[in-house]
Amino acid sequence: MFYEYNKIDFLTLISELKKDNVLNVIGGEIYISYIINNNTNFNKIEKYVKILIEKFILRKLIKLSITIINRIYKENINTLDLLNYIQINIDDIYIKYIKNNLRSIKHLIPKTIKKINNKSLLYIPTGFNKLDNIILGLQKSDLIIIASRPGMGKTSFALSLIINIIKKNIPIGLFSLEMSYYQIISRLITLETKISYEKLNTRNLNQKDLKIFKKKIKTIKRYPLYIDDSPYLSLIDLKNKCRKLIYKHNVKLIIIDYLQLINVNDIKIKNREQEISTISRNIKYIAKEFKIPIIAISQLSRAVEIRGGYKRPMLSDLRESGAIEQDADIVLLLYRPDYYGFKYWDNDYTTLCEGQAEVIIAKHRNGKLGNIKLKFIKTQAKFKNL
Asked: 148-204: per-residue pLDDT in tens?
């Protein structure tokens, strides 16, 4: 191969072409000599290779364009599906032939030292002190999974976390595939005003409630929170919307509620397990590409309910795919024993568990595991430091 030589000249080129048995195919030594004598400068070999690659990419784009035009003229074309097809194929060309992250350690060391010496915020604190002590906050490029069985308070935990973070003026993007913007904002109002969600939605507010409501709503309006409650969200939509949130609104954290509802109809998938695997892998890619933490809420399987004892969830309970466990940097499992009717924590008959929750750090790629306890206020659907 050419890269084995420090310098390419007529003799080394002829030698390599003979080894590959292609010298006579391309015209022999006479033709090679003719090319060299016609002002071909081998010192510019990298430039020539770049031109060849550019022409190759242009041919790929021409072929893709013809396919797109043919699809457009077909009857009953779905515009959204076509846009997704175009985006997927253009991204594929970009990743394969243009984007290059290969860098020598010699060039990466100075950048690493600069980051270590950087005094600016390296992570986003969750606001839950004991949790931050273990996971060291939400790190850039991390995929954080929050999972539990229904009724444990996954969305409530995410919203409590949002309130903790946006109070520090850190912009957040929230993709809510299950709840409408009205439900999300109503829950945030409940968290901030301490007026129960039920009371708020039945419009049963007294004068004191109204006074608090009017005061707090002014504060909430200033929060840097951007909500997308589209019920249909494909992976392409997610990537494009994340890009817009980051570049237009300087968003530092993305939250997805929840992972299993993302649509992958534009990708050929054999079964549900592969579907979830594709979703989790692509969310991790997005986190890494945009260098921001992404929190994705996920369901746990029914194995928790079937299991005897205290029904504490485990990593193996992640629903439908082990790929979530593999792709995630951190997995947090939520557990509220009083939901199942227990009065005490495990076999400790002196420690009451009512109004408390446990966050199980079941996976932490870059650190230690552990369990922390939080206070859970049911009327407000709110998690607090215990």
From this structure: 888 888 999 999 999 999 988 899 999 998 888 888 888 888 888 887 777 777 777
Which tokens is 11 given? 């003799």
Angle CA 242–315–282, to nearest 5 = 25
Q: What is the pTM of this model?
A: 0.70
| Domains of the chain as residue ranges with CATH | 2-97 (1.10.860.10), 121-385 (3.40.50.300)
Average pLDDT of the residues of the chain? 82
Q: Which of 118-127, 207-216, 285-294, 304-313 has the highest mean pLDDT?
A: 285-294
| Structural tokens at position 304 | 């928790």
* CA nearest to 147, candidates 372, 365, 332: 332
The terminus-to-terminus CA distance of the chain in angstroms comes to: 64
pLDDT in tens, 76-98: 778 877 887 887 888 777 767 76
Q: What is the pLDDT of residue 162?
A: 92
d(CA 233, CA 257): 11
Q: Which residues of 255-294 are buried (b: 16+ CB within 10 A; e: fewer)?
A: bbbbbbbbbbebbeeeeeebbbbbbbbbbbebbeebebbb
C-alpha 340/C-alpha 214 separation (Å) is: 37
Q: Which is more confidently placed, 319 or 337?
A: 337
Which of 175, 177, 211, 181 has its CA nearest to residue 194? 211
Distances (CA, A) of 362 to 124, 282, 340: 20, 22, 21
Rounded to 5 degrees, φ, ψ at 300 are: -105, 155
Kindly report, residue by residue over 147-159, the tens digit of the pLDDT.
988 888 899 999 9
Q: How far is CA 230 from CA 61, 179, 243, 254, 382, in A?
A: 31, 9, 17, 15, 25
Amino acid at 95: I
CA distances from 166 to 163, 180, 244, 298, 360 (A): 5, 20, 19, 22, 24
**Residue 350, class by beta-carbon neighbours within 10 Å (0-12 exposed, 13-18 middle, 19+ buried)?**
exposed
Report CA dihedral (177, 179, 184, 190) to the nearest 10 degrees.
Answer: -150
CA distance 82 to 86: 6
Separation CA 56–CA 52 (nearest Å)? 6
Predicted local confidence at residue 160, as pLDDT: 92
Residue 23 CA to residue 31 CA, distance in Å, equals 9
